[in-house]
Design a protein that fits this description.
Chains A, B: This is Pyruvate, phosphate dikinase regulatory protein. Chains A, B: One of its GO terms (molecular function) is ATP binding. Chains A, B: Keywords: Kinase, Nucleotide-binding, Serine/threonine-protein kinase, Transferase. The structure is a homodimer. Helices cover about 35% and strands about 10% of the residues of chain A. Chain A has about 400 residues and is of the alpha/beta class. Chain A folds into 2 domains: about 1-55 and about 115-220, Rossmann fold (3-Layer(aba) Sandwich), CATH 3.40.50; about 240-395, 3-Layer(aba) Sandwich (Rossmann fold). In chain A, the strands form 3 sheets. In chain A, strands 4-3-5-6 form a 4-stranded parallel β-sheet, with helices on both faces. A 4-stranded parallel β-sheet of chain A has the order 8-7-9-10, sandwiched between helices. A two-stranded antiparallel sheet of chain A has the order 1-2. In chain A, helix 8 (about 280-290) links the parallel strand 7 and strand 8 (about 295-300). In chain A, helix 10 (about 325-340) crosses helix 11 (about 350-365). Chain A is globular, with a radius of gyration of 26 Å. In chain A, about 45% of the residues are buried. Chains A and B meet through helix 2, helix 3, strand 4, helix 4 and strand 5 of A and helix 2, helix 3, strand 4, helix 4 and strand 5 of B. Strand 11 of chain A pairs antiparallel with strand 4 of chain B, so a sheet runs across the interface.
Chain lengths: ~400, ~400
């Protein structure tokens, strides 16, 4: 794996007992970023909000800033006054400085720009890391009321492909220095135990995401888990029918996007109909990733819908609708991105036009009462997908307790 | 939410203490599928493999079968002789019959076709269910050595949008009848507690996926979790910059697919280059879902590559390579799907041609040593994506401990 080989460490996978070095933060053993930060044991009052006391390496701050820039967040408007400290000079990459904690400095000459750092969550995985990322993401959904815009930002750091105990220990040490918590998915029981013990020694809270569910499944099946990380030899991904089905679904859906080939609607598993900017494309792609062939048909005022749409099995068609106010906001953003001039297509995001177009969609839906109409306002793509798949499977299987079943 | 409203039950969300009805399997309260199955307490020796003793409702069997048919699995070749029992007559939808346990019958007249049922895992979520599905999926990765092809199949059943205690109790009851385990993500603590207590009462092993990580984050931030499921009022999905960025990335990537607009390579965050069937398209789409604009450039023997490819920042270009044997197998499957005649494009999957094309790609990669070349043989799309993103962020941030950081 790339990440572990970039550490140039010997492979310790066969080590049977967990290896946990003594905490010794004063003498870091490698040239890792831990060299550049103040070394202090994590504060005892870690569980209280204490925004100004966070530690962060210069690299970490640059990454946060780079991310903030990419996401378009405004950097010259500090979101948390108490957390902003001025730095006296520009910081250059790889330069070893101890900056004010709790801020990220702008690299190369923009001394007054800072971003809020937030509390850190270290996510460690021996595989792709998507499971731990997904779980942490879901948990963070429970704290929406206090994340970045409410002054309690969280920084997650994903370390994937960690298959050896030495990089694992480096990460735990770094987490201790940053006052981070550690969340991990490590298939090898001795690695998981090492992570647990090391975090205990360093006084860091840690959570094992994969362990409990793996144990439950093991005892349910009466079979021991393999203990092999995803990328391990012997766990090669087989070219299963499921793999080909997913790829076929993705390719079908891309070709089919935006009503491109209406005569192919018959071949789709799911057909989405809705006006522009109801999220048909990202929704189609999300469903395609799950193995469903999706076609989508745009409803545009004054343009006739393809006849095929009314000839195919109506049980596979789903209408999408949205609040006119939200749709207008989305369309305005879209028009800006596309660089529409004020004249050309100006009505695209005008409220009257938006309402009329939604009304014409409503009439189409009313004429086809078998199509479920899904309200997408305020829903993430994943949520709308979940509603559609629940209905899809329910209609297919006609059961009183809707569920999606899968054979492994 | 759809699933819970389809139960037509009163909303009990405000109930402060967990509601756990007494187990009384002899008198099911609703017209759910539990009416149609033998009611027996789960066997005591549940943890031992006992393939022949599984219970399943007729619906469940039909779903398994439907899924097996969709996935193209051969049904007339039983994978587990001991689990196959003959059914004497065709089974019709919604018909209430008690069939031989451990088999799924073919509906409507195909009496001799059966599929292996497997042990059940019930996944219960108050939201989309993707977190619990993702986690169970990852855990099942630890049992690849014993899943369907090795005679120890597992059936997962996803119940999403479960926001009320009554459908929750129905599900637990049904799980008890099927000898399933229950894995859940329930944001409302009283719902989670109800699930736990009910499973305990019924003697079903249960695992809370979201609870431990949510608690860890809560104590790290010093903030209480909201306890609100994803679809709850007040948890509306905001139209964040992240949302628009993801959609833009998906739309860019679709338009860019398969080298369609080479002059746009400059705008991409990541550019993938590789011969046909190295997984460029599904990989592009996977990365796009994560918010990266991806372009892909097919390397075809004898066709000149777009000049832009060599002018753009080489640090964002990734080469894909694959074993010729595996590539040939994939291309053969592809050629069959596309219905290539034996004459037309026959060399596409011929070993000599496959080797030559890979060799021409290798030469291109050798001339561009900055491009990392990623071996995709035996890797799932998610794995290759993980490797690419690790390298991408590492190159961007030049740190000694590769990670992907994100601000929430």
């Amino acid at each position: 794996m790339f990440a572990s080989s970039s550490f140039n460490l010997p492979n310790l996978r066969s080590k049977p007992t967990p290896f946990v070095p003594e905490p010794n933060p004063k003498t870091p053993r490698s040239s890792s970023i831990s060299l550049h930060v103040n070394v202090e044991p994590p504060s005892k009052s870690e569980s209280e909000p204490q925004a100004g006391k966070l530690k962060g390496s210069p690299q970490l701050k640059r990454w946060s800033r780079a991310r903030a820039i990419r996401s378009g967040r405004k950097l010259d408007r500090p979101s948390h006054e108490s957390q902003v400290a001025e730095v006296s000079r520009p910081v250059h990459p790889r330069e070893s400085t101890n900056e004010e904690p709790g801020t990220a400095t702008a690299g190369d000459g923009e001394a007054r720009l800072e971003v809020n750092m937030g509390k850190s969550i270290y996510m460690v995985s021996d595989g792709t890391g998507w499971t731990v990322e997904h779980s942490v993401n879901a948990a963070l959904g429970q704290f929406e009321h206090c994340l970045v815009d409410r002054g309690c930002p969280v920084n997650t750091h994903l370390f994937s492909g960690i298959e050896d105990v030495e990089p694992l220990m480096e990460i735990v040490k770094q987490a201790a220095k940053e006052g981070a918590i550690v969340v991990y998915t490590l298939a090898d029981p001795s690695m998981a135990e090492s992570a647990k013990q090391a975090c205990k020694l360093w006084g860091i809270p840690s959570t094992d995401i994969l362990g409990p569910i793996t144990e439950a499944v093991a005892s349910h099946l009466g079979v021991s888990p393999s203990g092999l990380p995803r990328g391990a030899p012997g766990r090669n991904f087989p070219l299963s029918e499921d793999y080909f089905r997913r790829i076929e679904a993705i390719e079908f859906t891309i070709k089919q996007d935006d009503g491109a080939l209406p005569h192919n609607l018959t071949k789709a598993d799911i057909v989405l109909a809705g006006v522009s900017r109801t999220g048909k494309t990202p929704l189609s792609i999300y469903l395609a990733q799950k193995g469903y062939k999706v076609a989508n048909v745009p409803i545009v005022k004054g343009i006739e819908l393809p006849k095929t749409l009314f000839r195919i099995d109506p049980e596979k068609v789903f209408g999408l609708t949205i609040s006119p106010v939200v749709l207008q906001a989305i369309r305005k953003a879209r028009a800006k991105t596309l660089g529409f001039s004020e004249q050309a297509r100006s009505n695209y995001s005008e409220m009257d036009y938006v309402r009329e177009e939604l009304e014409s969609a409503r009439r189409v839906f009313a004429q086809n009462p078998v199509w479920p109409v899904i309200e997408v306002t305020g829903k993430a793509i994943e949520e709308t997908a979940s509603v559609i798949l629940r209905l899809y499977h329910d209609r297919k299987h006609r059961c009183s307790m809707p569920r999606i079943s899968k054979l492994y």
